[in-house]
Amino acid sequence: MFPVTSQLPDTERLSLAISQMECRRAGLDFPCWIILDEYNRVELDMAFDFESTTPLGSFSPAFLKKIALTVKNAAAARRLAGIRRT
Question: How many whole angstroms separate alpha carbon 63 and alpha carbon 61?
Fold first, then answer.
């Protein structure tokens, strides 16, 4: 899971701004960003910091492709870190 934040990320963080339309599709407040230089690894039954694991919405296929390409490039450049959450 990649973190989403409503606070402007630091310039050294690899992130994508989520457009107003994508926020609406995903059920998120605007503005927000997705952080793509680290991801959280957590077992769903251990995700205590979530109110619910029921999906709120989804991103468009075009935005998902943009995310995937950014993650692929980050992994190739060794800028991607998995953080195990317990």
Answer: 6
pLDDT value of residue 55: 77
Model pLDDT for residues 3-49, shown as the tens digit of each residue: 899 999 999 999 999 999 999 999 999 999 999 998 877 776 666 66
Could you tell me which residues come within 8 angstroms of residue 59 by beta carbon, excluding any fewer than 6 positions away? 18, 22, 25, 26, 67
Q: What 3-state class would DSSP assign to 66?
A: helix
- In 1-86, at which residue ranges do the beta strands (DSSP E only) sit? 4-5, 15-18, 32-35, 38-41, 81-84
Count of positions (residues) in the chain: 86
d(CA 62, CA 24): 15
